[in-house]
Amino acid sequence: xxxxxxxxxxxxxxxxxxxxxxxxxxxxxxxxxxxxxxxxxxxxxxxxxxxxxxxxxxxxxxxxxxxxxxxxxxxxxxxxxxxxxxxxxxxxxxxxxxxxxxxxxxxxxxxxxxxxxxxxxxxxxxxxxxxxxxxxxxxxxxxxxxxxxxxxxxxxxxxxxxxxxxxxxxxxxxxxxxxxxxxxxxxxxxxxxxxxxxxxxxxxxxxxxxxxxxxxxxxxxxxxxxxxxxxxxxxxxxxx
Length: 240
Prior knowledge:
By secondary structure, this protein is of the alpha+beta class. The protein has helices spanning 15-28, 35-41, 57-78, 84-94, 97-107, 117-121, 128-146, 148-158, 160-164, 173-183, 223-239; strands at residues 2-4, 10-12, 190-197, 204-211, 214-220. The strands form 2 sheets. The protein has a 3-stranded antiparallel sheet with strand order 3-4-5. Strands 1-2 form a two-stranded antiparallel ribbon. Strand 4 and strand 5 (214-220) form a beta hairpin.
């Protein structure tokens, strides 16, 4: 189906993506005036052909900013006495790839994504990086179609459990591991990339970290996320 891109170009919308729109609208609790925005949000880069549908990368860019704004507003309201540093740590955790991917999985986004045939067979719909990107893209579409109010409602509804579990400001795993090592007189943790696999639009990094004579390993779609996963793995090993 040919539709008009929000920036004015005529594009093709995948019929499979069209079929997913009602389910996505139910998850977001918003009826789209411009369903082409939602179709774009559900389209992974691997499914884009020359002259075809747009991928969700541009909407991900918008949604990332929307999520940061809505979450910052919510945190300032919920923790009125906390200084900026604590709020920043809470924000970094709540908008992190693992949290976004878990919420996307729980709300049913994997089944709605349009991906390339080869990527579908490789399980790309379950990759944390792909799910996190899709969540941000959906937020971007929601904001552009309905404004800040429906985006805020979706975030507060979907992130409620993650918000409520934060009794204390979290520390990211790399910081916590560094503090653990320094407090015990060990050298600082050492990180190195073990493997990098996958296509350029969906890479997968495996990173190892060593400290106190032990090693942890993390796997994710970016080096930063893989380092965090490796640090968490090592902290869990050290705790045991």
